[in-house]
TrEMBL record:
Name the record gives this protein: Cation transporter
Gene Ontology terms for molecular function: cadmium ion transmembrane transporter activity; ferrous iron transmembrane transporter activity; zinc efflux antiporter activity
Membrane topology recorded in Swiss-Prot or TrEMBL: Multi-pass membrane protein
Gene3D superfamilies (UniProt xref): Cation efflux protein transmembrane domain
Tree of life domain: Bacteria
Amino acid sequence: MKTSRLEQKSIYLSISGTLFLAILGLTFGLVIQSAAVMLDGFFNVINFVMALATLWISRLLTRPDGKKFQFGYTGFTPLLNLCKGLLVLALSLFAFISAVGALFHGGRKFNPGTAVIYAAIAACTCLLIAIIQTAIAKKTGSPIVSVDSKNWMINGFISLSVGIVFSVVTIIKNTSFAWFVPYADPTIVTILVMLALPIPAKVVLESLNQLLLGAPSASLQNRINDLLKIATTKFPCANNYLRMTEVGQAIYLHLYWLLPHDNKLDSIETVDVMRHQINDLVKQEFPNVTLDIIFTQDDQWFTIMNPR
């Protein structure tokens, strides 16, 4: 429950922060006619809507399994991250096309001095929230908060970069480089989109992998396989085969365990003891694991179920 409360506090923090920055960005963007600032404002509008959805999903995750969702609600986490990633990708591509068009049509006029004030406020807000969210993500292990903390960090560095560039533009507008001033805003948008685009793309791919029940990362697979190798040295095992997937915070393991033919089981309790000890071994490192173990001595059935 403590973890759940921390997660919800982090979401409330995100909602407050994104609402503040959305209003700030759209207001400054309209006043100074800056597409870069407007883009930042629209990003925060998306983050605000997603933060509200995140709050709803975090409450869903605390519910017990039901008749409709018999495996729980963990699938909503990658679904939310997928929607967030797709929205950011779509907005980024739109902004990129618009900025490139402006570069070929004489740029855009705007007030870089006022933009510096906006960037300073936005950068400080984003980086402060990112630090708090990162600390909460480490305590809770929540993928929702983890993705959120990365987004805040990205937003913070984007705002900081924009502030630095606008400061330079403010300095050069009264020099021989003044011709560049109208091109500064679309140039910043183009560069920022090109730099930031891989991040939502990665979130989309990871979320799709989880929704399609793909295998988790290679490092996670290797660590779990190492734990099972330890188990095979403690208990009789002729062969084993493991299927695994990761959905949100949950890890699902489906283990087929082929017992040697010369192993005579005294009772079903003996198998239960093995199951409990293997489960405890894995859960010591991965408490969010759901492990199903199927014991068998039927070689043919084992091969049919595990053709690889």
